[in-house]
Amino acid sequence: MSFLIRQLLKMPRQLVNREELGKLITKTSGAISMITESHYSVRSISSNNTYVITTTKSEWTCSCPDYARHNSRCKHVYAVEFYRSLK
User: Fold this and answer.
1) What is the number of structural domains in the chain?
2) Euclidean distance between CA atoms 20 and 29, whole angstroms
């Protein structure tokens, strides 16, 4: 884990938004794997977990606790969106 990521993870959650964390995940080598065109695997930058991100015609979903709790785009969904935009 890079120094920058460690520092961001120490900051209060309200100061670090999900979109910025998603960009960091995208920059982390090997963190995102495409399973199919609509399914991705994203390795957490803060734990040993890996989450599955799925897209339908209208939205993305993620298997992480943050997505389940808030039912809105999490850092993993943002990471996949950035990853796809780079392709």
Assistant:
1) 1
2) 16
Q: What is the C-alpha separation between 25 and 2, in angstroms, rounded?
A: 11
Name the band, by pLDDT with cuts 50, 70 and 90, for residue 46: confident
Confidence check: pLDDT of 41 > 80: yes
Cβ contacts of 60 within 8 Å, gap of 6 or more: 53, 54, 73, 77, 80, 81
Question: Residue 51 has which token pair?
Answer: 């989450």
Range of the domain at 8: 3-86
Q: Which residues contact 39 (CB under 8 A, 6 or more apart)?
A: 52, 53, 54, 55
Residue 59: CB partners within 8 Å, gap ≥ 6?
Answer: none
